[in-house]
Amino acid sequence: MSGHSKWSTIKNKKEKTDQKRGKIFTKIGREIAVAVKLGGPDPANNSKLKDIIDKAKANNMPNDNILRSIKKASGDLGAVNYEELTYEGYGPNGVAIIIEALTDNKNRTAGEVRHIMDKNGGSLGTTGCVSWMFEKKGQILIEKTCVGMDEDAFIMTALEAGALDVIAGDDEVYEILTDPAELSNVKEYLLEQGLKVEDAEVQMIPKNTVVVDEETEEKIWKVLDMLEDNDDVQNVYHNAILQEE
């Protein structure tokens, strides 16, 4: 789940990882399957796969599970083909929502996603209806308290790594934005400098955010939680300013 909020989103994600570890592993397993299909089973030659393995380890996914997912995707254990789908629409009070899914049955997934949206005061729209409000970028988050240099020096380091922008803001983390294709390279450079990366993924970043009232926020959290609980849904992006759950 990703909106404008950076650190609260990561903390919320980590809490949900503890609560719903099995579902997280299922979703990551599907990402591994797609990455292997596109670039092969060797992470040394497949940067997307390497990034997903890093994500799996960050979520405490056992090595046996990771290797099994790679073997299954390679056809050794009976591969399942997943189709990447993107849905766009509006949540409560017109909040823009983008939903990315990996599925082996697109009719099932479309029906379930539409049901969740309709049930909670939202609606699916046509392709492109809200995606113009977002930009696809690599996003790397590094906790400020773990950075052993001042802000100016850190920003220079990130820019030397190939970052497009660094946002310090009032959050507890630095948000580093990259070209999607350069995410892995920038992350590796920062790791080589001894920096601890909390999260690194390609995200749909909203160009502008909207403020919602407390009642609307509660409705949006309900939609996001139901979507996240669906096995086929991989990522949900929105443009609302939400507090921590």
Note down, in words, how this protein is organized:
The chain is an alpha+beta fold and 245 residues long. 43% of the residues lie in helices and 22% in strands. The protein folds into 3 domains: 67 residues, Orthogonal Bundle (Arc Repressor Mutant, subunit A), CATH 1.10.10; 85 residues, 2-Layer Sandwich (Alpha-Beta Plaits); 72 residues, Alpha-Beta Plaits (2-Layer Sandwich), CATH 3.30.70.980. It has 8 helices and 10 strands. It has a 4-stranded antiparallel β-sheet. Strands 5-6-4-7 form a 4-stranded antiparallel β-sheet. The chain has a two-stranded parallel ribbon with strand order 8-10. The longest helix has 19 residues. The mean pLDDT is 87.
Task: Describe how the helices and strands are arranged.
Layout lengths: L6 H13 L1 H19 L7 H12 L4 H11 L9 E8 L5 E8 L2 H14 L3 E2 L9 E10 L7 H11 L3 E3 L5 E6 L4 H10 L6 E8 L3 E2 L2 H15 L4 E6 L1 E2 L4
Parallel strand pairs: 8-10
Antiparallel strand pairs: 1-2, 1-3, 2-9, 4-6, 4-7, 5-6
CATH architecture label name of the largest domain:
2-Layer Sandwich
* Strand arrangement, major sheet: 3-1-2-9
Give Rg in angstroms: 18 Å
Strand content: 15-25%
Q: Name the helix and strand elements from N-terminus to C-terminus, one letter apiece.
A: HHHHEEHEEHEEHEEHEE
Structural class: alpha+beta
- Helix count? 8
The main sheet comes to: 4 strands, antiparallel
Per CATH, the class of the largest domain reads: Alpha Beta
Query: How many structural units, i.e. domains?
Result: 3
N/C terminus separation: 12 Å
Q: CATH topology of the largest domain, anyone?
A: Alpha-Beta Plaits
Query: How much helical structure, as a percent, in the residues?
Result: 40-55%
Low-confidence stretches: none
